[in-house]
Amino acid sequence: MERYYQEELECASRETMVALQNEKLVKQVKHVWDNVPYYRKLMEEKGVTPDDIQSIDDLYKLPMISKYDLREAYPYGLLGCDLKKCVRIQSTSGTTGKRVVAFYTQDDVDLWEECCARAITAAGGTNEDVCQVSYGYGLFTGGPGLNGGSHKVGCLTIPTSSGNTDRQIMFIQDLQATILCCTPSYAAYLGERMKEMGLSPDEIPLKAGIFGAEAWSEEMRRDIENTLGIKAFDIYGLTELSGPGVSFECSEQSGMHINEDHFLPEIIDPDTLEVLPEGSEGELVFTSLDKEAFPLLRYRTRDICVLSREKCSCGRTLIKMKKPKGRSDDMLIIRGVNVFPSQIETVLLNYGYAANYQIIVDRKNNTDTLDVQVEMTPEMFTDNLGEIEKRQKDLIDGLKSMLGLKAKVTLVAPKTITRSEGKAVRVIDKRKI
Ligand code: DLL
Q1: Number of structural domains the chain divides into
Q2: Domain-embedded: residue 1
Q3: pTM of this prediction?
Q4: Is the separation of the CB atoms in 53 and 61 below 8 Å?
Q5: Which tens digit of pLDDT belongs to each residue from 362-377?
Q6: 243 CA distance to ligand 1 centroid (A)?
Q7: Are residues 126 and 165 in the same domain?
Q8: Which residues lie with the beta carbon below 6 Å from any ligand 1 atom?
Q9: Parent domain of 197
Q10: Measured between alpha carbons, how far is 69 from 39 in angstroms, rounded to an integer?
């Protein structure tokens, strides 16, 4: 039987949800206008005032903001309340440019943890579960978010954070953990290590995993489910909007329900900024509806995906987003062709490889080159050159038909590609170095 954490909201009728969103949007826009001079200026430049926003149908009138604005306004420029009311900050890893710092009041933290509690409940979690949180703790939102959600559900929470893989496995075994929360790449690594230790899926007490923070393919889901003997659920979120739990998967495992009572989604064309109809692929844009410390109106996520209001068998009425294909800024343009790393992953896993790969892009003699390095699994490992060449050729053909592009494939020995304990780094684009 499907369980809900906040059934009246997760399963609300469309009319109830729209009425709630209308009311909250009007309030949130007024809050931003009154308290965030940076955004008020953008509204003034566009000639919009809070009076113009009476319902969600008026959303399109508001200006959009992006990571650029967050960096411009760093650290306090988008703060929506007195710093004295704030109890927490979290931050992105900031690999490019300045870090993004998000602020939280106690109510913001509660709301965020409730979103994570909805996700854990949708994955079957109850107060009888032991939930191991192996996302990083600290400035990254993964650990703290799922930790808070796990407490709210009443699970016995094991805050291992990421890393120290053998100790993770020891806790899973000794404390009989039933739910694992971590990135999909770390879940794959934990699975690989458990297999090496001779543990079969029935000897692993886990029943569910809540994996997100990076793009991962359906093929990778299947592999993780088989190795760990679990059901693997996707979870999505971003620091700017609070963290994990913006959306989460249910028993149907076909896209993530957006907590649209808190985060109003739109899909836009990233080039023209035009709002696209439901079912179109485009960039996801979110408007927060309840945030006090860090409210964001029409925030461009850069994530490319599709929204769907198709009826879900779990009973939730919350709109769903398909698995994000990747970020528009992760998309590689190779000899003019758009390539998402997730497409390459799909091919590799379909040919029986594990998700231990690296994509190296370079430019030689003014032509882009794509080199996919992938590990052979221990079962396929061989030093028979003919066999290796055949495997490489098969993969080159598979990639050609998926991408329409000729790639070089290099098969490497098992365990030569570095494993990730957090978000995996799959692409090295030497053209940018
Ligand atoms: O990754 C929050 C999070 C933690 C989500 C734990 C899920 C689980 P950031 O570090 O700010 O926050 O990165 C946000 O990661 O814009 C997406 O590009 C990507 N991302 C997050 N979840 C998914 C997912 C956290 N399930 C950025 N599938 C987002 C694909 C995801 N991409």
Answers
A1: 2
A2: no
A3: 0.94
A4: yes
A5: 999 889 999 999 999 9
A6: 8
A7: yes
A8: 92, 135, 141-142, 212-215, 234-239, 243-244, 301, 303, 324, 327
A9: 7-329
A10: 9
